[in-house]
Write a structure and sequence with these properties.
Blueprint (H helix, E strand, L loop, with lengths): L1 H5 L32 H13 L9 H8 L13 H7 L8 H20 L10 H25 L21 H18 L18 H18 L11 H14 L27 E5 L16 H6 L1 E2 L8 E2 L7 H6 L5 H6 E3 L19 E3 L25 E5 H11 L5 H16 L13 H12 L6 H6 L3 H8 L24 H6 L13
Parallel strand pairs: 2-3
Antiparallel strand pairs: 1-6, 4-5
Helix pairs in contact: 2-5, 2-6, 3-4, 5-6, 6-7, 7-8, 8-9, 8-13, 9-13, 13-14, 13-15
């Protein structure tokens, strides 16, 4: 933490992080005091905040949360430990340091921009200024939400810190979530009301009013579930959270893609494409780093989950992390189109050339969502398959808005909840005869199971389990096998929180406290 807050943002860090709007050239060696004068400089500072979305390696929160859930095992090679440690809730020195540094760097950059933005010469039009503030506050809220879910008790600051403030104490979760909610409400109110069809393609990847409203729904459901609260830190009520989601449904211009498999690149010629009408917000990636390890433009998670060290058409190679639990495969009805669109079955796809080699925790199942493909692989584009995979990470889909809205309407409008739930299930089965009836008693469990199947391997399952309670999480995550490498025991004493990096505990000079269940 001290390292993050003590660092000064050099403008030379403002490199491109993805595509179109985010592909901007760095400015040469300007100081913080001479910067933040023009709208273009403010935009470059905003891009620097966005840039932190792309940072991540084997510790990407999307991957880590899947490993910690019941969807996956650690996998990787027989000598790879870190993925197995997340899967088994084991100790490791300085685990999660990359995550901590990533998010606090993003927060620092957002805070610097927000503290300097009044000094920019905006002319007579304040619209652009308000938009940049709203985007920066959304991103700060997004970073804090991941930190708060991951670590629980984290330091909270909304301004650049002075030296005397470096060792600020951890804030209560209620205070952190209050700030998250206030930032997201600001973004939802100030960002332009432009329906999906009117968003310029050059702006894909930038946050929108709809992304802010959808994230409010996600934060509301997690906070109220995990902490057993009635509202979101006194800032957003249940009715208001439902209202934000209703606004997306009624005015956002989004919709479900006609066929679930077409959402994913593995559908090849049938792929509907990125930035489709179901994508409310995604983190953009590109291959244009072209093998430069100093760039962070590629989706590093893809190489982590790629089939280990071999090319099996149509799939490209990777490191074999996150082998899929057969329980997930078996949870699907055979007629559910989501099963084969989400998971690779070595046997069912007749991948006879597959060799286990040093693959650890082999189950016969791998991710299909986000699996790198042989056609158009990063190496063939002049890059490096380890760092230049380029599928966007879809953070919020319209299907999630529908199921969140269904959940929030269970106690007030069961018919509306049923309608939203049916849309997702009808698309999965390509018929209306596979519906299940929501009731006051079974509605929540049916929706949670639908979320499991709809969002498998999208980084949502672990958090959905935690917000249902520790007993639910343990019952799902615990795994007992005659093969000891698959034994997993969820440690309820951790409350589902991860270990704060030892380095940060030590740098705080005793101010920070480690989470329960973890040694310092």
């Amino acid at each position: 933490m001290k390292k993050i807050f003590a660092s000064i943002i050099a403008i030379s860090l403002f490199a491109a992080c993805s595509k179109d709007f985010l592909e901007r050239s760095p400015v040469d060696e300007q100081t913080e005091t001479s910067f933040y004068q023009t709208p273009d400089q403010a935009l470059q500072a905003l891009v620097a905040v966005y840039n932190q979305l792309n940072i991540g390696d084997y510790d990407n929160i999307h991957l880590v949360s899947e490993l910690a859930s019941d969807n996956c095992f650690g996998g990787g090679g027989t000598s790879d430990l870190v993925w197995k440690q997340w899967d088994r809730f084991q100790e490791a020195s300085n685990m999660n340091l990359g995550l901590w540094q990533k998010y606090y760097t993003g927060i620092y950059r957002a805070n610097v921009l927000l503290s300097k933005i009044d000094g920019v010469n905006w002319g007579t039009d304040s619209t652009l200024k308000n938009t940049y503030i709203a985007e920066a506050r959304f991103l700060r809220a997004y970073f804090y939400f991941d930190l708060a879910r991951f670590f629980g008790n984290v330091p909270l600051t909304t301004k650049p810190l002075t030296v005397s403030e470096y060792n600020m104490p951890q804030a209560t979760p209620a205070d952190v979530y209050k700030q998250i909610a206030e930032d997201l409400k600001y973004a939802a109110e100030k960002l332009p009301t432009v329906a999906y069809q009117g968003i310029p393609t050059s702006n894909y990847g930038r946050v929108t009013k709809w992304a802010a409203q959808a994230l409010i729904g996600r934060v509301f459901l997690y906070y109220t579930g995990y902490y057993n609260q009635n509202d979101l830190a006194g800032v957003v009520t249940k009715a208001q959270a439902a209202g934000y989601l209703e606004n997306i449904i009624n005015a956002g211009g989004y919709g479900l893609v006609d066929s679930f498999p077409r959402l994913w690149q593995a559908s090849a010629a049938s792929f509907v494409g990125e930035d489709n009408k179901e994508t409310i917000w995604s983190i953009k990636f590109t291959h244009k780093g072209l093998g430069n390890w100093d760039q962070h433009n590629g989706n590093r998670m893809q190489v982590d989950i790629g089939i280990r060290s071999q090319v099996l058409n149509p799939y490209y190679k990777g490191w074999g992390a996150g082998t899929v639990n057969s329980k997930l495969w078996n949870a699907y009805d055979g007629a559910d189109t989501r099963r084969n669109a989400s998971i690779i079955s070595i046997e069912d796809e007749n991948l006879t050339a597959y060799a286990i080699g040093d693959q650890s925790q082999y189950t016969g199942y791998f991710w299909k969502k986000y699996m790198p493909l042989n056609d158009g692989n990063a190496d063939s584009k002049g890059g490096n398959f380890q760092i230049d995979n380029y599928f966007d990470d879809v953070i919020i889909r319209y299907a999630d808005v529908l199921l969140m809205a269904a959940e929030l309407n269970l106690g007030t409008d069961l018919g509306k909840a049923q309608g939203y739930y049916d849309q997702v299930r009808d698309r999965a089965f390509l018929n209306t005869t596979s519906r299940k009836t929501l009731t006051a008693t079974n509605g929540k469990s049916l929706i949670m199971e639908e979320r499991r199947l709809e969002f498998a391997l999208e980084g949502l399952r672990y958090w959905d389990l935690l917000r249902q309670g520790m007993s639910v999480a343990k019952a799902a995550i615990d795994n007992s096998s005659s093969d000891a490498q698959f034994n997993v025991s969820f440690r309820t004493e951790t409350q589902g929180l991860f270990k704060i990096p030892e380095q940060e505990i030590n740098l705080s000079s005793g101010v920070y406290r480690q989470n329960p269940g973890w040694a310092n």
